[in-house]
Every structure is written in structure tokens, then in C-alpha cells.
Design goal:
The complex is a heterodimer of chains A (277) and B (288).
Chain A (H helix, E strand, L loop, with lengths): L6 H29 L3 H4 L13 H9 L2 H32 L5 H13 L2 H15 L5 H24 L4 H9 L4 H12 L1 H17 L2 H6 L8 H11 L4 H21 L1 H9 L6
Chain B lengths: L3 H30 L1 E2 L8 E2 L3 H8 L1 H33 L5 H9 L6 H11 L6 H8 L11 H28 L4 H9 L4 H12 L1 H16 L3 H7 L10 H10 L4 H25 L8
Antiparallel strand pairs in B: 1-2
The chains are: A mainly alpha (277), B mainly alpha (288).
Chain lengths: 277, 288
């Protein structure tokens, strides 16, 4: 195939590829190099070449703002969301595939329906309920809200994984004297590990990147997560672009690292539609 | 079989959880839309359909509805066209394919907030890199913060940048399932690249395309964060669509009932589209 292409066509293909890469990556590149520039070079003529290299934006961001607190809040909320999502979605998806009863497709249907729900439509009634329960403006309420995004996704993805595993596999183990739980943990779970990892990654991603729920649920500055917190800095300071870009880079960093090392799971999950939006 | 009782118990819990997390809030949203409420802690007063009457009678509702259609229509169009282009490119023999694919997908993973901030920085009216580029090429820069049409074009561009990879990946996966013989046969018959795309690739991928467009429609029509973060619905409400209107009514104007009514109307439109989706792609019971 490659040899079919004439030199001219191959050059055109390379040029289009380069264009596609620049289009996709330039804003990220610009965010990162801007974060390392001091004010003098930021507000001078923009040079496309990286540098000069300064850490002043990071020092201000981590030393003088609430950024470290927001970072911890984000970690807490995302970790909680991942744990809750994994436990419940594994149990639900497994039960649904292993039991035969009428209307079980209704559960799957509801999950798919919920998965399509736009966050803002759930955020307002959820907030109203949290106020009634007296847990509004807490990290717990944000965690629970994030589960409305991640749980449907987890059940939906894992349902696809569990139903591919023939029930004979566990029955064989149970004939050999395993309990159901043991058969599940020792036989079924290892086979579906890629699915479980994918759900964990995307639950983290959805929670880490969410802005809408964070905006509605959290009022106190001390309880904000990174996306909502960073956005408040836009209003507070007279557009300190260096610090804003440093803050943006630090939010993206864990995602970029995860993406580099686990890209197989990312592509697999994304192809299954794991990020709603 | 052993262990079934435990499974039923788990399923019961699952039912309860689904109901609590998703169905009850959906019901509560409808409930709020029938009440007069000026904050979340005040005593609600049942007023029937009055919120809906008020909302539907205001021009700002219909303006927001129209802007939502414009926003969704253009973003879907460009996402689909660009996404197909990217997928065809990634399916060809490009150099460093895994890296190119990774970079092409990356925008989709980024938090909306950093995309909104980075683009605002790149488009800064005095020192933004894009602004300077535009000036260098001899064009006049129109500040997007002062002109509704330019602001709308900006949020559409950002949305296309972020969400195109969804279409790319779906289309790329679909391309792998098109039988190679079809292309061989077409080549023998003397069809050129464009004809092969138009007469084989597109018809073969029609189901994928339908799913993609329906899902994009559902999500783009209700996209809140990118518009709110970039323009707050401004300038002069020029980018305010239904989700922004619902948010402003609820949290800025303290008309919780009316905000809920706006949400409920979007919800009805959305449900209609979702039902078309389920009708076109029924969940196959036999798949089990």
C-alpha cells in the first residue's frame, strides 16, 4: 500500500498530518510554555519558541493562593468517586448479567438514559435535595453528584464485559468447591480486569475535570475543586495569565501522565463512549 | 444455583441506588417546576403550570432556544465533517501513527476550564498569540467579548476543538469493519478515492454516523460549561442558550421554579431525541 503512493501524494499526506497535529496540540503547547514565562516576556511580543524559563507563576500559585487546597479537594473527591463507582458498578453489572428476570433490560436502559443526561439538568434538583438533607456545600455532596455521571458509565461498560464471560467458567469453579464469592473474585474478576481499570480511569477523569457540578454544589472557597477554583481566580485577579496557565498546566498534568502510560485503556474507553459530552 | 439470594439483594440495592441518584432527582426537577420558590430554603408554593406560562411567554426563552439550535447545529456539523476527516487520515499510512492518534484525541480529555482559559489567553485582544497572528496576516482583529456573533463563533470553535475526537474515534472504529473487498472491487471498476469514499465508506458507516449525530445532538444542545466558562452567556446575552438561562434564573435571579421549568422543557426535547435513539437502536434482549 505504502508504495502505491507517489511522492507527491505522500508529501501531501505528511503535510495534512502535520497540520492536524499542530491544530490539536498547539493550544496545549502554548498553555505549557506560557506557564513558564514571567510577566515581562508574557506581555511582550509572543515568541513561538519556548522560553525564557521561569518558575515564578508556580511559586505564586502554590504559595499565595488556595490552589493547593483545591488540589487536595480534587484528589479527595475523585478518589471517593472512583471507589464508590467501582464497588457498585461491579456488583450491579455482575448481578444483572447473572440473573434471569423480567425487566432487567429496563435497568440497563435506565443506566443508558441516565448516561445521556446533561449534568446541569441533574445538578439543580440534586442541589435542592442536598439543601433539604443539610449536606449542601460539602465534598460529600459533590462526590455523590459525580456518581450520577460515573455509575451509569461503569454499569454500562462492565455489563458489556461481564456478559462476554460464559457462566460455565464460574460453574466449573463452583463444582470444584468454590463459593460464589470465591468464584467471582478468583475467576471472573481477573478476566474483566481491563474493564475495571477502564472504569476506574474514566471515573477519575470525569470527577477530576467536572466543572458544572462543582460550580453548583460548592460555595465555600475552601471546599472547591480545581476546575471551579481556578475559574474563581479569573474574577479575583486582574487576569494574571501566567498563574492561570500554570494552574491549567497542573490540572492537565495528571491526565497527560496517565494518558501516556495507559493510552490503551483510554482509547478503548473512549471508543466505547466513556466520556460524556 | 448457589449465591442467587445475595445477587438478588445486590440488585435490590442497585435499584434503590439508581432510583435515589437518578430517578428521584429527575422527578424532583419536575416538582420544582410547578412551584414558586425564591430560594432553596424557602417554603414552596404550588402554582401549577404558571412557571411554564411565564417562561414560554418571554422572548428571552425563545431567543435562548434559537441560540441553542444555532450552537448545536454548527458544532455538530463541524465536528462530524472534521471528525470524519481525522478518522480517514488516521486510517491512512501516516507517520508515527500512535503518537498522532494520541495527540488528535487529547483535546477530548482536557477539563473544559483549561480549554476555555487557554483559548481566552490565546485570543487576548492585545497580546494573545492568535490576535497577533491575525494582525500579522493583515486582518483586523474583532474582539470576541464585544460582538455577539463573534462570541458565538468563538464558543462554537472551542466546542468543535474539544469534542471532535468523539466523532473521530467512533468513525475510526467503524472504518475497521468495512470489508476490504468492497474497496478492491471498486478499484478494479476504476473508482477514484472520492468515489470510493462517497459510494462505499459513507453508506457502510451510516449506522455509526446516525448514533454519533444523535449523541452529539443530545449533548451539544445541553452543553453548559464551555459557554459559561468562556462568555457567561454574554455579551448582551448573545451566547445565552437554555442551560445558561436555567442556571441564571435559578442561581442569580432566584427564580428557582422558572429555572426548573426551563430545564424541564429542555428535558422534554431531550427525551424526544433519546426515544428516537432507542427506537433506532433498540437494546437487544437476545444479546444477553
Amino acid at each position: 500500500m505504502v508504495n502505491d503512493l507517489s511522492i507527491g501524494r505522500r508529501t501531501a499526506l505528511y503535510a495534512v498530518t502535520l497540520l492536524a497535529v499542530v491544530y490539536s496540540f498547539f493550544p496545549i503547547y502554548w498553555m505549557i510554555i506560557s506557564s513558564f514565562r514571567d510577566d515581562a516576556s508574557l506581555y511582550a511580543d509572543a515568541s513561538l519558541v519556548p522560553g525564557p524559563f521561569h518558575l515564578v507563576n508556580y511559586e505564586v500559585l502554590l504559595g499565595l493562593t488556595d490552589y493547593p487546597t483545591w488540589f487536595m479537594n480534587s484528589i479527595l473527591v475523585a478518589t471517593g468517586t472512583v471507589c464508590i463507582t467501582l464497588i457498585f458498578s461491579v456488583l450491579i453489572a455482575y448481578s444483572v448479567t447473572r440473573l434471569k428476570f423480567r425487566g432487567k433490560m429496563a435497568i440497563i436502559g435506565t443506566m443508558l438514559y441516565a448516561y445521556m443526561f446533561p449534568p446541569m439538568m441533574l445538578a439543580i434538583p440534586l442541589y435542592s435535595l442536598f439543601v433539604k438533607l443539610g449536606i449542601d456545600d460539602t465534598r460529600l455532596s459533590l462526590m455523590v453528584s459525580h456518581c450520577t455521571l460515573t455509575l451509569p458509565l461503569g454499569v454500562w461498560l462492565l455489563w458489556g464485559f461481564f456478559k462476554q464471560i460464559p457462566i460455565d467458567v464460574e460453574e466449573a469453579a463452583m463444582v470444584d468447591g468454590c463459593s460464589r464469592l470465591k468464584a467471582f473474585v478468583l475467576v471472573v474478576l481477573p478476566l474483566t480486569l481491563p474493564g475495571v481499570v477502564t472504569v476506574a480511569i474514566f471515573s477519575f477523569l470525569l470527577s477530576w475535570t467536572d466543572y458544572t457540578f462543582a460550580l453548583v454544589m460548592i460555595g465555600s472557597d475552601q471546599l472547591k475543586t480545581l476546575p471551579a477554583g481556578l475559574d474563581t481566580m479569573v474574577g479575583l485577579y486582574e487576569l494574571r495569565w501566567g498563574e492561570l496557565m500554570a494552574g491549567s498546566t497542573l490540572i492537565a498534568l495528571p491526565l497527560l501522565v496517565m494518558f501516556m502510560f495507559l493510552s490503551r485503556f483510554f482509547i478503548q474507553g473512549l471508543s466505547a463512549g466513556a466520556v460524556k459530552g | 444455583m448457589r449465591g442467587e439470594r445475595a445477587l438478588y439483594l445486590i440488585l435490590g440495592v442497585a435499584f434503590a441506588l439508581t432510583a435515589l441518584l437518578i430517578l428521584y432527582p429527575a422527578y424532583h426537577a419536575l416538582e420544582l417546576s410547578f412551584q414558586r420558590l425564591d430560594s432553596f430554603v424557602s417554603e414552596p408554593e404550588w402554582i401549577g403550570l404558571q412557571n411554564y406560562q411565564t417562561v414560554l411567554a418571554t422572548p428571552e426563552f425563545w431567543a435562548a432556544f434559537g441560540r441553542g439550535l444555532v450552537f448545536a447545529g454548527f458544532t455538530i456539523l463541524f465536528q462530524v465533517v472534521l471528525g470524519i476527516g481525522f478518522a480517514m487520515l488516521l486510517d491512512a499510512h501516516v507517520p508515527l501513527k500512535p503518537l498522532v492518534r494520541g495527540l488528535a484525541v487529547l483535546p477530548y480529555l482536557l477539563p473544559t476550564v483549561i480549554v476555555a482559559l487557554t483559548f481566552q489567553w490565546m485570543l487576548d485582544p492585545t497580546v494573545g498569540v492568535m490576535t497577533q497572528g491575525v494582525r500579522l496576516m493583515g486582518y483586523e482583529y474583532i474582539p470576541w467579548g464585544e460582538n455577539s456573533a463573534v462570541a458565538m463563533a468563538t464558543v462554537i470553535t472551542l466546542s468543535v476543538w474539544i469534542w471532535t475526537p468523539f466523532v473521530t474515534l467512533a468513525f475510526l472504529a467503524g472504518l475497521q469493519s468495512v470489508p476490504g473487498e468492497l474497496y478492491e472491487a471498486a478499484r478494479v471498476d476504476g473508482a477514484n478515492g472520492w468515489q470510493r469514499f462517497w459510494h462505499i465508506t459513507l453508506p457502510q458507516l451510516r449506522p455509526v454516523l446516525t448514533v454519533v449525530i444523535l449523541l452529539r445532538a443530545i449533548w451539544m444542545f445541553n452543553k453548559f460549561d464551555i459557554i459559561w466558562l468562556t462568555t457567561r452567556g454574554g455579551p448582551l446575552n448573545g451566547t445565552e442558550h437554555l442551560p445558561v438561562l436555567a442556571y441564571r434564573k435559578t442561581f442569580e435571579l432566584y427564580q428557582v421554579g422558572e429555572g426548573a421549568a426551563v430545564s424541564a422543557i429542555s428535558f422534554l426535547i431531550l427525551s424526544a431525541v433519546i426515544f428516537i435513539y432507542f427506537y433506532a437502536f433498540p437494546l437487544d434482549e437476545k444479546e444477553e
